[in-house]
Design a protein that fits this description.
2 domains, 19 helices, disordered N terminus
């Protein structure tokens, strides 16, 4: 088998062996490998797997651009963003028709795209969103997942994420930018780039206010380094409308935004396209009690914060990280970032406001890296993990759900049930990891105690022998 060769920036070649190794950050060039494994769809060639994943993203990007050029106002939410920005500059309230639910800051930030014709602005919006999402995914692998996944696992992670993100990208949603900030921000935290991380985590908040939950979890996790930085970056972004409008005008728009969000949440009739925990309750247990559902939401949110704090404490006590079932070593911070992001995305889709089928793009990266990790690691419970991913992706296509509705009226609950199954697997896998750490810790402690006892016994024997010789 031909070996993999890495060439660093200085031109020196480094032999990485035949296993494919991990790709270094910093722009090295990879050679080509013809390995014996991963033969399907070009996977037998070392890092060529990554090229296949990149090709998939490029093909989707081209398809989205062609679709936007031909039909700039169909199957996309971009025209809503653009019209809000145009209304802003024309002195008209962007919240008048209540189709725009985003912050005044977001309307200002979208303005460069809105100045162009819809076909061109929409095309550039899609390209920028996909590029930012791709960069966020690569940064998250380099900063967080490198210790958990192999280099080939990175390609599979990117490919599975693409499959789970197609519908969200196709519709021009802003969730791609939210994920880009979340992924790159968590990676920056793990790398100790505090200021960069604060801005990346704060940027999604003006788009949809609920990403503040992730920023809050990171603030709890790295309280001393991140809490005040995130607060400062968020305040700076919130001040943007005051730079381009009068103080009274910007304040009035913020008030209208709050009224729009309140009116949406207070609607008597729930939108039938939502697919969340409420959907599960409604289809399997009958009418939903709003107060009970709110209690569940608050309890799980509190549990999520407590879990983040507990994970932060474990990370400080176990700064060296832990070994995965695959034999790779994962740092404590990387593991904490991975679990915080996965837990937030699952909670947001299952219990957060306004989760539709398109919103499931938020859990695509977490479910993708979990599936790859389950495949490459101990493989215990991987069937559950992959089954949950298949349910979320297949049922999320819409056509499958409509077909199943003719057989079972509760088919609307299938997609959120698939995500709930993933949440169970995620909690179980973390519990198993903690148990494994405790067992390994007890074994190491027992081994150290035994070695200490042997050394002490040998010391006594040598000491006693010395005394006898001197006598």
């Amino acid at each position: 088998m031909e070996n993999v060769t890495r060439v660093d920036q200085g031109g020196a070649a480094v032999d990485a062996g035949g296993g494919g190794g991990d790709r270094l950050a910093g722009g090295e060039v990879w050679g080509r490998t013809r390995g014996a494994g991963w033969r399907w769809v070009g996977w037998g060639r070392g890092n060529d797997a990554l090229a296949w994943a990149q090709l998939g993203w490029v093909v989707l990007g081209v398809a989205v651009c062609v679709k936007t050029w031909v039909q700039p106002n169909r199957h996309t939410v971009y025209p809503i963003f653009a019209q809000a920005a145009r209304d802003w500059w024309a002195g008209c309230p962007p919240y008048e028709n209540q189709a725009y639910f985003y912050s005044p800051t977001f309307a200002v930030l979208v303005s460069p795209f809105a100045a162009l014709p819809d076909w061109l602005g929409g095309m550039l919006w899609s390209v920028v969103s996909m590029w930012a999402y791709w960069k966020g995914l690569r940064a998250f692998y380099a900063g967080v997942l490198r210790g958990a996944l192999s280099a080939r696992g990175e390609a599979l992670f990117l490919g599975l994420t693409l499959v789970g993100s197609v519908r969200g990208i196709w519709s021009g949603q802003s969730n791609t930018l939210i994920l880009a900030g979340a992924l790159a921000g968590c990676a920056a935290v793990v790398q100790g780039q505090w200021q960069r991380a604060a801005w990346l985590l704060a940027l999604p908040i003006p788009i949809k206010i609920w990403p503040a939950a992730l920023a809050g979890l990171v603030g709890v996790w790295k309280f001393r380094e991140m809490s005040w930085r995130i607060a400062g970056a968020t305040a700076a972004l919130a001040a943007v409308p005051y730079l381009v409008d009068t103080p009274s005008g910007a304040t009035r728009l913020y008030a209208e935004w709050g009224e729009t969000l309140s009116a949406r949440q207070g609607e008597a009739r729930r939108y039938p396209g939502y697919r969340d925990g409420w959907t599960i309750w409604e289809n399997l247990a009958g009418p939903v009690d709003r107060r009970a559902y709110l209690a569940v939401l608050l309890a799980t949110a509190g549990g999520r914060v407590a879990g983040g704090a507990w994970r932060a404490g474990r990370g400080r006590r176990n700064a060296g990280g832990g070994e995965l079932g695959s034999g790779r070593q994962e740092s404590a911070d990387a593991r904490a970032a991975r679990l915080i992001l996965a837990g937030w995305s699952v909670w947001q889709v299952l219990l957060g406001p306004g989760s539709e089928r398109l919103t499931y793009i938020l859990v695509a990266p977490a479910m993708a890296w979990s599936a790859v990790q389950a495949w490459e690691g101990t493989r215990r419970g991987r069937g559950i993990c992959w089954a949950s991913l298949a349910i979320v992706v297949v049922v999320g296509s819409g056509g499958v759900e409509r077909s199943l509705l003719g057989v079972w009226s509760g088919a609307r609950a299938l997609q959120p049930l698939g995500l709930a199954l993933y949440a169970v697997w995620l909690a179980w896998s973390e519990w198993e990891a903690v148990r494994r750490e405790r067992r390994e810790g007890a074994t190491a402690e027992g081994g150290a105690t035994a070695v200490g006892a042997v050394l002490a016994r040998e010391g006594r024997m040598v000491g006693g022998g010395g005394m006898r010789r001197s006598a």
